[in-house]
Design goal:
Distance between the termini: 69 Å
Helix content: 25-40%
Largest sheet: 9 strands, mixed
Strand content: 15-25%
Oligomer: single chain
Radius of gyration: 28 Å
Number of helices: 23
Shape: globular
């Protein structure tokens, strides 16, 4: 079924609480976003866009024919989950049965792609494995492809399928018999060992189930090859059968917004230049070289910011001969580059200004802006817990199964500090460096158990160095991982806490490119971002794209901890989320969770002490209040005039505003101090409590 033309109206519904109005949690406020969307003729019209539509089971399946197999698979799944101490109630068991039905039965629209959005902890991966076992044993003529995030996941699933499956991958260091740390084309082509990679290439047709990675799916879709010979296997009777079922564990890459760097394009151009006039590929190579020149010229021609580049040639396709030669001889690190360039030539994209200055050199960037649906002529099911808030599922081929919630998240507490900006650039700055060691001390002083620290890749080593100090491992076990490396992982399922140190905010140009993938052209001159309530894009369509991606990313990270087990054991999230609307989406997703304004004292003092004038002034005020009231008797008071004079405020309004600051209010509450019209008075003993505001006790 073809994608709907852009002139058809799309609607995006987003749970949104106005920054200017009430912040009632869990209230659905439906906003229709107007945005500029280019139609096929390049003209602009006001359009509307919406969150994915959900479908009931009977809207998807044609009939319920395989009741015995569904029952068997359901019981196997429930049994396995319960052996892992996962609570499976009646409703949960019914929904597992519905998942089995949707995978096993015929669909009313055989060209659709079904997405199962069961929340993390539902047991989707376990269900997938048990369903495949039942199908493989009952129907040996049905071939299956399973796509997972990582090769390590692939190996684990292969082991659980007990001889029914084979893993197909290009390179995996843990399985390399030469001990190579990374892929080397020359070393691999000349290797004498018969490794797992070679065995899979020779024997994949003997197995009913084929395991591949998400990266493999991406490459197949990018180069338009389908599965080729991998789409077929030979059954037990020697009959060649087509693999007809594709199960994708976790969301595959759909919007293609990849960066083509100068280095990658240079390496690709060097490859093309080696194709001489005697080669039948010479003309195609020279044509691609010209497109590389045009792309680089578009970057160099910019005076500032970015520019949307329209298609160079909408009909451009790489020849089969060029693709074959490329994969045989290319020496670059990333084989996706040629396919990405072809996408840029065909679909256009975004180019970013290349800036030179005495202080900073920012390389120009080229972003693709394409959509790659997992369309491999197979019955396809995607298991994605955050599909319901993911704007990538807008194509009408997607059928997101309406899966009721099986649990509340009343055991989850968010401790959010909205006043600290832990952006990637701020943490990387050498000026006024932010101190994560102080934050760790603040959090773990009164905590125990197990915690995952999720941060940027560039900060991961810094945390590991800190955690080598045994002082930090006395009462709490700490793990560190980085954004982009955690989806689908099971390593942290015993952690009851997660610290989100920074947010995976990508560049503005990336979000522009992603919007362009969905047919939304954004002009920053008309719609620049603001800093109110965290970065907010004034263009509503771009903001919807940003919020959707940010929220799905955070949910995937949070659900890596014990919370995924569907238990009611307490779990905590420590975060620095400045985006109010993203926080609202998280509260909606994690129904019945609690949210606490959180100010880790030592960390906030250091952070504000390194900040701008107002932050430094707040820091001085807090220090003054601590010194005055920490051990003071009940009834101790101090006039605002005394504070005014002691801290050399310029006017009373500034002092009044500072006393209403959320961080200051949290300190006053802890000290047992109330603010009157003219003075501050200690009217109760102060509170000492865990850093997450629990287990409070009066001590001062």
């Amino acid at each position: 079924m073809a994608a709907p033309p852009f002139q058809h109206v799309l609607i995006i519904t987003i749970w949104f609480v106005s920054a200017y109005g009430s912040l009632k949690a869990f209230e659905d406020i439906h906003i229709k976003f107007l945005m500029e969307v280019s139609d096929v003729n390049g003209k602009y019209k006001d359009k509307q866009i919406n969150l994915p539509v959900k479908y009931m089971l009977d809207q998807i399946i044609e009939s319920n024919l395989y009741q015995d197999l569904v029952y068997k698979a359901t019981q196997n799944i429930v049994k396995r989950l319960r052996t892992r101490n996962v609570f499976v109630g009646e409703k949960h068991e019914q929904l597992i049965g519905d998942l089995c039905r949707v995978v096993m039965n015929n669909w009313k629209d055989e060209h659709c792609i079904v997405v199962h959005p069961g929340e993390c902890g539902f047991g989707k991966t376990t269900a997938m494995i048990e369903i495949v076992k039942v199908i493989a044993d009952a129907s040996p003529e049905v071939g299956i492809v399973i796509a997972v995030e990582r090769i390590s996941d692939m190996k684990r699933v292969e082991q659980e399928l007990e001889g029914r499956a084979i893993s197909f991958f290009s390179f995996y260091a843990d399985s390399c018999l030469q001990g190579l740390p990374e892929y080397n084309r020359h070393a691999c082509s000349e290797c004498k060992y018969f490794c797992e990679k070679k065995r899979a290439r020779k024997e994949h047709s003997k197995y009913q189930v084929l395991l591949v990675s998400h990266e493999h799916l991406l490459m197949r879709a990018l180069y338009g090859d389908g599965f080729g010979e991998l789409a077929y296997f030979t059954d037990g009777n020697g009959v060649r059968q087509k693999r007809s079922l594709l199960l994708i564990d976790e969301k595959p890459q759909i919007s293609l917004n990849q960066n083509l760097s100068e280095k990658e394009l240079y390496t690709l151009r060097q490859f093309l230049m080696k194709i001489g006039p005697e080669s039948p590929l010479y003309g195609e190579a020279k044509q691609i070289e010209r497109y590389i020149y045009e792309a680089n010229f578009a970057v160099g021609d910019l005076k500032d910011d970015y520019k949307i580049i329209d298609s160079f040639d909408p009909s451009f396709q790489l020849s089969d001969e060029m693709k074959k030669y490329y994969f045989q001889t290319y020496d670059g690190d990333d084989f996706a580059v040629l396919g990405l360039l072809a996408s840029f030539i065909r679909k256009g994209g975004v180019v970013q200004y290349k800036e030179f200055s005495s202080r900073w050199h920012g390389p120009g960037k080229i972003f693709t802006a394409d959509i790659l649906h997992p369309d491999f002529d197979m019955k396809t099911v995607i298991f994605d817990a955050t599909a319901g808030i993911d704007l990538d599922y807008q194509d009408e081929r997607y059928r997101i199964l309406d899966v009721p919630r099986i649990r509340s998240f009343s055991n989850l507490a968010f401790y959010n500090c909205p006043d600290a900006n832990l952006s990637r650039s701020k943490l990387a700055s050498k000026k006024n460096q932010i101190d994560p060691e102080t934050l760790i001390k603040d959090i773990i002083n009164d905590n125990h158990g197990e915690m995952l620290i999720l941060t940027y890749k560039g900060q991961e080593g810094r945390f590991r160095a800190i955690l080598e100090d045994k002082r930090f491992n006395a009462d709490i076990k700490l793990h560190v991982d980085h954004y982009g490396n955690i989806k689908g992982k099971y390593l942290y399922a015993n952690a009851d806490q997660i610290l989100l140190y920074g947010l995976n905010h990508k560049s503005d140009v990336y979000y522009v490119a992603k919007a362009l993938s969905h047919g939304i052209r954004v002009d920053f001159v008309k719609a620049p971002p603001t800093k109110k309530y965290g970065r907010v894009y004034q263009h509503q369509g771009l903001q919807a794209i940003f919020e959707s991606e940010m929220a799905t990313d955070l949910i995937q990270g949070i659900m890596r901890i014990k919370l995924r087990r569907n238990t009611m054991e307490p779990a905590k999230v420590y975060s620095f989320i400045q985006y109010r609307r993203v926080m609202i989406i998280l509260q909606e997703y994690f129904s019945e969770c609690t949210k606490v304004e959180w100010y880790p004292l030592s960390f906030c003092m250091k952070y504000m002490g390194n900040g701008k004038n107002r932050e430094k002034r707040i820091c001085e005020l807090v220090t003054y209040l601590e010194r005055t009231f920490q051990i003071a008797e009940i009834g101790t008071c101090i006039s605002k005039e005394q504070i005014f004079q002691a801290l050399k405020y310029k006017d009373q309004d500034t002092l009044g505003a500072d006393l209403k600051n959320e961080f200051v209010l949290s300190v006053l509450k802890r000290l047992g101090v109330s603010v009157g019209h003219r003075k501050l008075i200690k009217n109760e003993r102060g509170w000492s409590h865990d850093k997450d505001n629990t287990n409070q006790k009066q001590v001062c």
